[in-house]
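Q: I'm writing up a methods section and want to include an example of the input and output format. Could you take the sequence below and give the corresponding predicted structure tokens, formatted cleanly so I can copy it straight into the document?
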Amino acid sequence: MAYRRAVLPALAGGLLLTALLWWAGESAHALHLPGAPGPLDGQTAVELEHWLTPWSYDPPASVQFGTEVPGGVRDAAGTAGTSYLALYTAALQIRFGAVFAFFVAGALLLVRRLPPVHGRMPATLLAIWAWGLVAGTLAVAVSAPWLIASGGHGSFRFLPRLAGVISSGRQVLVVTALVAAAVTVLLARGTAREDGPESHEAVPARAARLAATIGTAVIALSLVVLSYQPVAAALQRVSPAIGLFTEPGDLLRQWLLLGAWTPPGGAPLGGWLLYRAGDVLLLAVVWWALRRLPGLLTRATVPAMAVGAVCATVLGLLASQLLRVAVDGAGSGLRWGLLHLSAGLGEGVPAALTCGLVAGAAAALTLRAVGGRAQPAHRPRTPGA
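A: Here is the clean output for your methods example:
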């Protein structure tokens, strides 16, 4: 699909995602109105507020701007509070602008290389949905320094606090990104039909399988080796004395670890194997997606394969997390409520971005090395063409 036809669906999806996140953030304030939490129990209202607050222009109740001005008079404290509030507002403005920019950039590439025609529509929908989570996570990361500075003492334990901010606001992205992806794909399907049949490259099956295996091995390195409890603990203990950037362990875990791999220990072996089934499902989704991706793309370029691998890893994470929600819900009889059980949805997206980019690049290079130069597959001419 030509870029000029892919721009409109990408822009529409980006605007819708930004608007939905803004609406979700504004809804956080409604939970405090008299009588608003009536249909909800207290725990559910707290969970919802925790999910929505990272996208709200209203500062959380725990933030008291201007109260930490030492020995200052009231005017000085008020001026400081106004400055901190301005920093908080700037952080949210950067966050929403970055969501739009990151989503449009990724959706433009995906719609162009993976147009929703000829059986590709489900794949395009899933890929753009996953990219919506990546765009939201990147937006939170980009705006985090302003948000940290707005609370005062921004230089104190900056990297651990940065890791904490990046991990927030992910749950609401799962729903809003799916809605934005559906609208993007529906618009792209209409514009793609005007371009006529899309050509694609014929990829040898052996090369596609080998590329998928190498890409999955990269993901397994993070999921199995780096996420293994002793290795993860060693990463978290990394603490060089370099001023503002001390204690980077929490941030390293955020960007490198896809899960938490622990030995059975005192837990029953059956329960441990049931939890490991989620990890197996993640790797199976990644391998299957990378195996199919070269044949679905109109051209298996390194950027397209890298972004596709990121989306495949995010989808694998969501599948494994949904499986664990089901396992935990069945084990507890939904004692904690579905909202509480779903709190882990969207975890690991920074690691999926990091490892997915490497996995996709490795898979694309393998395709070029093993498959040689792919030949374009010819489609039958349509009547009247």
